[in-house]
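--- STAGE predict ---
source: upstream dedup step, 1 unique chain passed
mode: sequence only
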Amino acid sequence: MGHSVHPYAHRVGILRDWRSRWFNTKQYTKFLKEDVMLREWMMKKLRMQMISGVEIERSRNTMHVIVRTPRPGLLIGRGGEGIERLKKDINKKFAIRDMRITIEEIRNPFGDAASVARLVAQDLEKRLPFRRTLKINIQKVMTSGAAKGIRIQVSGRLDGSEMGRVEWLRDGSIPLQTMRADVEFARERAILPYGTVGIKVWLYKGEVFSDDKKTNNKDK
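--- STAGE serialize ---
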């Protein structure tokens, strides 16, 4: 039987970096558990702000949390009060005091798999037909020029049917086995009156070669 591999984990060390960047032999298990719980809590709490991902960096005394979102204004708030409120909530939940939060803006939400998955979930929660929702979002992604291929899969009681099933649509190419292919993957859920609909999005942005990596590092 075949085994599915997460496209992000499949390319860690080749095209992707770790989402938690630190090293500590004495408190490894504590920090790892803390990172996993903090990331899950933030993704659930900030779901409506459409955050795409949470990356964590640690130094000797401080924790640096990097949040990526296409709508930074909703997260930052007026005068930065949203960030201060988020720090207080994290300190109350996880007892982390020395912490710095950075908000990174995603300029094109149609070039980010997590943002596309959230947009699909919002359309489904508005009771739009799932086929129309998939076609519209795929068309928006391909029209924006942010991707060379996309696949969206939904599963559950689609449009309120009695039995759950899996449906998907694709446009362009999705080379999942090519290591140098820049493929983003995201999962999302749409909570509907007749049940939960699972959403998966694969986004292919093209191939990355070693020369491209060098030029990107020089630009940074």
